[in-house]
Give the backbone structure.
Amino acid sequence: MPHNVPASQPNIHRGQQTMTQLNPTEEFFRDLAEKVKGPGGALEGKKALVIGIANDQSIAYGCALAFRAMGASVAMTYVSEKSKQYTQALANHLGVDPALYLPCDVRIPGQLEAVFEAIEKTWGQLDIGLHSIAFAPREDLHGRVTDCSRDGFLMAMDISCHSFIRMAKLAEPLMKDGGALFTMSYYGAEKVVDRYNLMGPVKAALEASARYLAAELGPKGIRVHPISPGPIRTRAASGIDRFDELMEIAATRAPSRMLVSIEDVGLATAFLASDYARLITGETMHIDGGYHVIG
Ligand SMILES: NC(=O)c1ccc[n+]([C@@H]2O[C@H](COP(=O)([O-])OP(=O)(O)OC[C@H]3O[C@@H](n4cnc5c(N)ncnc54)[C@H](O)[C@@H]3O)[C@@H](O)[C@H]2O)c1
């Protein structure tokens, strides 16, 4: 067995199906582990909190699998009781301690705080925090930024941006040996991307917040990164008008001529979480096949 694959590979339960064979994501990491021996145990013993897994297409799930494959333990949240039943199988597969599989809707006062209390009680520390959530009301997201409502703007900023600042504040005392915090952004933060609309300014604020957090928490050894993946077909992405066209443009214009997968995002994020990246912070990491360098 490759040295960086967890010793016990639990069964996967997806929907009604029970599978004992590896799924494509697992196969990807197994094959990679055989090819790239180096970073296999790069996150051995690390404790990672992952917020934003809605299903097995979620970017956060790709990151959680990568953290796990490189040796980290994972704590995970679900947004509602309804979603809990769908993500339970993923939590099982990731080997999440039931005490660290917790509700977290960042709009509900006390839920994010309770997650960190449970981590303190169970682990006593945290090394990695991944924030992979976003929301904007549909009518504001589909209209011009010029027309967006105050309430819609504030809600999008609260859920998609300020919650990351709150997460960093709660993580700070638990990252006793330093750590790494990540949030998911998009190229629409930097340039006007057709139909990204309100999420553009929200992601711009998120990236700027991450830079300030990196500066403030850096002396404690805490690194902070916005991750900027190319378009990936996920539930959140389905809220963007004519998302397929964005994917088509990315696939034809990116230097790689390839679309990004959740495995690609997971792998690069796990690298940034490891000591291999110990003096990299504050930077927006584009995982987009090079799309952002094209004029
Ligand atoms: N899919 C893409 O093309 C793409 C590209 C770049 C960045 N992103 C960003 O990646 C992140 C993850 O999105 P995804 O594409 O994996 O989709 P996803 O739908 O799988 O994940 C979005 C997550 O946000 C969570 N969420 C929404 N409101 C919440 C709240 N109030 N409290 C807690 N959680 C809440 C959802 O439960 C879900 O888990 C988002 O920030 C998104 O903007 C996505």
User: Anything to note?
Assistant: The pocket of nicotinamide-adenine-dinucleotide is lined by residues 52-54, 58-60, 79, 104-107, 132-135, 159, 184, 186, 229, 231-232, 234-237 (CB under 6 Å). Residues 1-19 have pLDDT under 50 and may be disordered. The two ends are 45 Å apart (CA to CA). The first strand starts at residue 12 and ends at 14.
